[in-house]
Amino acid sequence: MLVANVSEFRKNLKHYIDSVAANNDTLIVNANGKSVVVISLKDYNSIEETEYLLSTPANKKMMYKALEEINSGNTTGKSSEELEKMVTKND
């Protein structure tokens, strides 16, 4: 995580933007008691996707159940061909 005041940020804008984009760093910029967070577009999109996936109770329950199954080792492997058949069969 990077931290800068607004003057440092303004002076070294390219450096900070490059670092955030290339390294997925999080940058906190402080100015007069106010702070903002600068993150990469990739990280932002990931946060938005997670929020969307957890936005309904049913989806949230299904995802936590799947995570519990993964963590307990209660899973089976599928080939890409098997997955493709499963997807096209349900269409």
Q: Can you describe this structure?
A:
The protein is α+β, with helices and mostly antiparallel strands and 91 residues long. Helix content is 62%, strand content 15%. It is built from 5 helices and 3 strands. It has helices at residues 6-11, 13-23, 41-53, 57-72, 80-89; strands at residues 2-5, 27-31, 34-38. The protein has a 3-stranded mixed β-sheet with strand order 1-2-3. The longest helix has 16 residues, at 57-72.
List the main descriptive attributes of the protein structure presented here.
91 residues, three-stranded mixed beta sheet, 3 strands, 5 helices, alpha+beta
Biggest pleated sheet: 3 strands, mixed
Shape: elongated
Strand content: 15-25%
Unreliable stretches: none
How is the topology of this model organized?
Elements: E1 2-5, H1 6-11, H2 13-23, E2 27-31, E3 34-38, H3 41-53, H4 57-72, H5 80-89
Parallel strand pairs: 1-2
Antiparallel strand pairs: 2-3
